[in-house]
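Continuing the batch. This is chain 6 of the set; chains 1 through 5 are on the previous pages. Same settings as before, nothing changed between runs. Recording input and output for traceability.
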Amino acid sequence: MDEENYISSNVDEGYSPEAIANMENALEEFAVSLLEIKPEDANIAVFRGLKLTIQGRPRRLAELGNVESPDDPMKIELMIYNKEQIEKVLEFIKQNGFPAKNEPGSQFIHIRVPKPSRMQLEELGDEVIRRTNSATTRLMKIKTNTGLRIRAAMEKEYIDQRISGIALKKIDNALERITKEMKIIGIIKRKAILGSFFKTIERDDADLVKVINKRVKLEKDRIAKENELKIQKEALENESQNKDDKDTNHLNNNTPQIGIEQNISTNN
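Output for chain 6:
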């Protein structure tokens, strides 16, 4: 506890706050980068990459028409620029395993995208791993660069050894915490992509899965507790309201009787 207070004490150095802020930014950028990896996009990427030979020249479908998925990512609308190429493009798409149709007189070819295969999903999972490793390497570079700056500052006597030690310890703690969080985010993304096909691959996957499961359980328990307290609060409010209503009714029922008794006394 004394060491923790010592490390977290306010010392005159700006190296660790800058490094930690850069690491936090790297974590946020990594999480955002994973949003663009979507299982439903796997076959769409394959579709966009198909090449059809037109006049002896290989052309991507995206070069021959406008590719859009306005309503459903699993349904593509391809508007062919040149009407004379519609039949050839339609037949080519079908031959490559994409169910497609074209209404007579229309420039649109409607394509239904099959669900991604297990192999495609695993490729996406591998891409998540690559991005995770790249992001954690970026954290190490931040630590290394800051360490070099701290060493140079010591040599020039801008800071002493005590402050240097505190700064490096803070950076090490942040590196460990943020690296772990990056890996957890990566595993959560892989589980979302692979579903029942998910399996532990990296060395610390199994341990981090336990951490994730524990977090999920704690979150469920928290929500359940909040709902329980909400129900209890509503029950108490209803009970209080019913009591107030009964008191009001009782008062209203007794008031006329008091008035009648007063009238009888006056008449007598």
